Amino acid sequence: MTKAITVSGLHKSFGRTHALDGLDLEVEAGEVHGFLGPNGAGKSTAIRVLLGLLRADSGAAQILGRDPWKDAVEVHRRIAYVPGDVTLWRNLSGGEVIDLLGRLRGGLDARRRAELVERFELDPTKKGRTYSKGNRQKVALVAAFASDVDLLILDEPTSGLDPLMEEVFQRCVREERERGRTVLLSSHILSEVEELCDRVSIIRKGRTVETGSLADLRHLTRTSVTAELAGAPNGLADLPGVHDLDVQGRRVRLQVDTDRLDAVLRSLGESGVRSLTSTPPTLEELFLRHYQDETAEVAAR
Amino acid sequence: MTTLAPHLAGTGTLLRFALRRDRAMIPIWVGVNALMILSMPNTLKGLYGTAAERADLMRQLTTNSSLRALVGPAFDDSLGALTAWRVGVYAGALAAVTSLLIVVRHTRDEEESGRQELIASGMVGRRASLTSALLTAAVANAALALLVTAGLAGQGAVGALAFGLGLAAVGMLFATMAAIVAQLTESARLARGLTSAVLGAAFVLRAAGDSATDDGSSVLTWLSPLGWLENLRAFAGERWWVLLLFAAAIVVQGAVAYELAGRRDVGMSFLPTLPGPAAGRLGTAGALAWRLQRGSVLGWGIGFFLAGVVYGGMTEGAAELVGDNERAREIFERMGGQSGITDAFLASMVGMLGLIAALYIVASVLRLHGEETSGRAEPVLAGAVGRLRWAVGHLVIAFGGAALIMLLAAVGFAVGYGKDLGPLVAAALVQLPAVWVVGGLAVLLYGVAPRLAPAAWGAAGAVLLIGWIGPALDVPQTVLDISPFGHLPKLPGGEMEWGPVLVLVALAAVLVTGGLAALRRRDMTT
Questions:
Q1: Is residue A230 part of a domain?
Q2: Is the residue at B278 inside a domain?
Q3: Where is the ABC transporter domain (chain A) (predicted)?
């Protein structure tokens, strides 16, 4: 499989702030890749380097097999970008902007444009200054989805969209994948990421801390288990990977590293199980683990 | 009627906030205006030192309608009265511009950007924003009045007070005018444009009235607030009741603004924004740049053409007057040409428009900066558009637009003067190398240090100051030589010199190239 984006050891500082501190990122062609991290982690900086708007201090980056800085124009012909905060020209109508952005890329599919305008319920005749935030966002989204490109870079694209429009957005992303396009989706909306992304990369302080499919990542976290047993539990405390064990008579509550779940279930089975609930880790827990480390560190300072 | 007090909650806080935001802008605008006014008695003393010279000037003013159209009639030959005569119209216009910028900046600009919502959601009364904007303008105008009154007190305290108050009154009249217009339009740019157009109309009405009569009594003059200022007759038997006229107009306009503000929603306007096309034909960065700038090119073009017509029409009369004054002729010759007072007058007027074109080119080049910092450049540059092509799209309009407006000015001059189209076109175009150098400097600043790009306004302002009042102030030649305009051949009338013209063109090319090279290599900012 070819890579749509490869980034390794990317560094970028602004004065004394190190926005990117050795970032790695690999996006396979044809996948929807989630790009996650707390505010200020360097997501937008990384995207702006990939767009050739910023020049990396060191490290390597390739996008669609080319250098994002040197070959910016050729690369951009095959890319559509949606920023998280779209600003429009005040005296241009939404329709004019959509067509302009499409022509500045590889071109626009007129039929798809009309269909998207319909689906996003956008009035393309309004002038830029009269759009609400959500509608400005829709203008950029319609322009991106209707463009004839290979790679979509979406930087928190759904901020300001209502739940119905969020639904439309998700359907559009799925269609893009079906058409074989690659999507890099930076987002804070975890349900969105869970729903759409084949693989995710989590970055913190300008560095990649986790990358892989959601299934891979789930393995790294803990499953919570609650059980009512026929006999007394035994040996649970000695099992590796068990945390927060709480035994009250025959009721047992515990957390276990997901890749050690097997041993715990066997041990419980030996005591005889009356009832059992096992909750897989939610994506929230996954992120909170990474996000919270940071808050804890900040608090400790 | 409900009481106003609850609607004004938070005005004090907003006023302090506005003054803090304008801490650089107000002192600069007011300071430049005061400097222009306070330097005038000295200049005039040099020009019209003897009683005979002054009497001569007064006689000329009664017979020369062109000159009256340019600066208005004088009512006395004291230095104070002549100062009020010579700078009154222009200082009043400058005070008006300062005031309208302040008011629009703190009203419509805030609403358009959405910042007003954030403010209005606090413990802020419904009329607090408008009130604090007007008070901010009042502070600026009061400072001007104070500086002028104190600075000109040596020419007569009563006259100085009247002149200072008159200027402040013109300022507040346009502040309240801007407050009304800001309720009507949805865009701040349009509000500034419309209020400036009213100011332009006031100037034209006064000029027309003053060219018809020599004592400011024409109805046309009385229709213009700038005409009221001259009819206040500072230093010449002040007519204090004219200030009541100002006060009444300010109160009425203020009341209208408050009434309109009370009848609309935040962010809305009385002039609706019309829908645009559902599909667009724009397809390139260059077309987008033209679309964004065409309105302003058109506005500048019309302005330059009309200015050409007006000044061209005054040429014969003005040259007649200058011809009688040895010292003024000397100044005109330093500003303009060597032979023939008419040519010298034309050359200096074309040169003045050249200086103003420097403002156009800076504004146009800095569109790049505005597009970049607002984030609007980002989606364009994320398309298949190189930075150079994006920048060049705007620069073609900046540098070509400067040529276009100078050409239109030349045509205007030829229409007003009635002849000499060829030499006037040459005179207008020969200004371009200097205009382009200023534009090139703006490109260089923008490319190398985008944060410092607005400093290009400083360069344009310095060039304007040197070219405008430098010759009259006996500034040493080395200072005059800093300005690229100082090296241009004086056309019409003078000898065409290709050397300096080509050097300036080359310099402009180097500056632009350097700026673009730096732009290619640096990070884009947002």
A1: yes
A2: no
A3: 5-230
Question: By CA distance, what is A54's nearest residue in B?
Answer: B523
Of B152, B24, B161, B178, give the one whose Cα is nearest residue B95.
Answer: B178
Instruction: Write down the residue that tokens 């892989």 correspond to.
Output: A212
pLDDT of residue B338: 45
| Angle formed by the axes of helices B387-417 and B285-324, nearest 10° | 30
SS3 B525: coil
What's the token pair of residue A203? 């970055």
Task: Note whether A126 contacts B276, CB cutoff 8 Å.
Answer: yes
Residues 6+ apart with CB under 8 A from A32: A173, A176, A177, A182, A183, A185, A196, A197, A198
Q: What is the span of the domain harbouring residue B371?
A: 284-526
Closest partner CB to B187 (pick from A48, A129, A153): A129
Residues A50 and A161: beta-carbon distance below 8 Å? no
> If you measure CA to CA, which chain A residue comes closest to B113?
A129
Question: Which residues lie closer than 8 Å to A120 by C-beta, 6 or more apart?
Answer: A138, A141, A142, A165, A168
This prediction has a pTM of 0.79
Is residue B142 domain-resident?
A: yes
Tell me the angle at which helices A94-104 and A110-119 cross, rounded to the nearest 10 degrees.
Answer: 140
The predicted complex's ipTM stands at: 0.76
Are A76 and B379 a contacting pair at CB < 8 A?
no
B433 pLDDT band, cuts 50/70/90, is very high
pLDDT for res B322: 61
Q: How large is the average pLDDT for residues B16-45? A: 90
Is B57 in the same domain as B156? yes
The residue among B214, B242, B271 that closes a domain is B271
